[in-house]
Design a protein that fits this description.
Length: 450
């Protein structure tokens, strides 16, 4: 897909160009989706008592919240290719707000499980975020743009851990019971999701020169692929072993982050005998690292590319994954709260840099099937979260043991990134494109305030 007039610099305080409006709306939309997706996680201590849930049942709800996203992420990339990111994102946000607001109606494990399953669909928002920024930014900054938009979106995991206990506390102060309070609290992220969907429709466009429908009408974009064309695009991506290697890699980083988002508050609450608000605050620190950590992963990906091309991007991804695995194993062995928090932050840094590094590689795998590639790789994150969740639903396995085994898996499977290679012709083509984009501005992956 040949998109013209991509931005060669990220001007953070600018909203005047379609590229920067897409950047800001895409990260904020993903942030809000995280808010709705994991809004219930920091309230699980209350929900556990209200619905009398066992550890196994809690584990099953965690699996449900991320399992459905695997399927939806595979489909959402095809919708982006066909309809454009603007229509796809707006629809997902508006429709996704319904189960978020409706989870408060759950009165049993079964109904709560179904609600979390439905809410999990909004996790596919990540694919649209990465797709939209890939449409808008040139090769010299696309790694930084993808990493920053996704990182600030992932920041919603930290926002959720901090805000939801505070919202619940406020409702309790107003006289609501805990049983009613957590149900009312979930209305907040649902309303925000709905309003964001309307804003996305009104203020963004698919590409720098217009929406996909307009570009196709002017002959600047190939016609939308029918069902056969969409299937062919998906199969082209699915036949590429590099896509599946990145599928595994993304499971090792984003899948791990999703798992931590789901268990962090209850882990600190039970292990260190903290209050719900304090446990939520500490758990929120993990997600708050996304303010800069995932961006760093993309920045380093662009910098490695400046020196070593696409091979450099792959090498940096491998380094980030190995460091993540080591930090996770260390975190699992911490018995002192202050040390646990410190190591958790180091672990958070590397897991999020690995995510940014992954989507510093994705845009270069298959440009003609970008949506399919992004969808498959994005689905890998949730597939990893499903497998990781199996560790934490086992009544005979402590959370500490689960984290240790998870760290070992990251270290061993990090080698899968070495499968990702590019032909000499592709390396030369992308090196030329990088230099042309970088020549417009000094420096690689440059961010500026205006």
């Amino acid at each position: 897909m040949d998109i013209r007039n991509k931005a060669t610099r990220i001007r953070l305080l600018s909203f005047s160009t379609p590229q920067m409006r897409a950047f800001h709306f895409s990260w904020f939309a993903f942030h809000v989706c995280f808010f709705g997706w994991f809004g219930i996680a920091p309230l699980m201590v209350v929900v556990r008592e209200d619905l009398a849930l066992t550890q196994t049942q809690i584990g099953n709800t965690i699996i449900a919240s991320v399992a459905i996203t695997v399927i939806v992420r595979l489909l959402i990339g095809l919708l982006c290719d066909r309809l454009g990111p603007r229509k796809t994102y707006s629809s997902l946000l508006v429709l996704g707000s319904i189960p978020v607001m409706s989870i408060g109606l759950a009165d049993s494990f079964e109904s709560f499980l179904l609600a979390r399953l439905a809410i999990g669909a909004i996790g596919a928002s990540f694919v649209i975020t990465q797709y939209h920024t890939s449409m808008m930014f040139a090769p010299n900054v696309v790694g930084t743009a993808n990493a920053t938009s996704a990182g600030w979106g992932n920041l919603g995991g930290g926002t959720t851990q901090i805000l939801m206990p505070l919202i619940l506390s406020g409702l309790l102060m107003l006289g609501a019971s805990e049983t009613l309070g957590w149900r009312l609290a979930m209305l907040v992220p649902g309303v925000v999701l709905f309003c964001t969907g309307i804003g996305y429709w009104l203020f963004t466009q698919d590409a720098p020169d217009g929406n996909f429908a307009d570009l196709r009408r002017r002959g600047e974009l190939p016609p939308a692929a029918g069902e056969y064309g969409a299937l062919r695009s998906f199969l082209a991506a699915a036949r590429d072993i590099r896509v599946w290697a990145l599928f595994v890699v993304y499971g090792l980083c984003f899948g791990v982050e999703l798992t931590i988002n789901n268990i962090a508050a209850i882990y600190f609450f039970d292990r260190f005998d903290l209050t719900l608000a304090t446990a939520g605050l500490i758990a929120g620190l993990f997600g708050l690292m996304n303010v800069f950590a995932r961006t760093l992963g993309g920045v380093f990906s662009d910098l490695f590319a400046a020196q070593h091309g696409l091979k450099g991007r792959v090498r940096w991804l491998f380094i980030a994954l190995v460091c993540e695995g080591i930090a996770l194993i260390a975190f699992s062995q911490m018995h002192v709260l202050s040390l646990a928090i410190g190591i958790m932050l180091v672990f958070s840094l590397f897991v999020q840099m690995a995510e940014g590094a992954t989507f510093g590689v994705v845009p270069f795998i298959n440009k003609k099937a970008l949506g399919a590639v992004a969808g498959i790789v994005g689905a890998g994150g949730n597939a990893g979260a499903v497998l990781a969740a199996l560790l934490f639903r086992n009544e005979g396995l402590t959370y500490q043991q689960g984290l240790f085994y998870l760290g070992l898996c990251v270290l061993v499977l990090a080698a899968s990134v070495l499968v990702v290679r590019f032909s000499d012709a592709t390396e030369a083509e992308e090196a030329k494109a990088y230099k042309e984009a970088a020549n417009e501005h000094t420096g690689a992956g440059a961010l500026s305030l205006r």
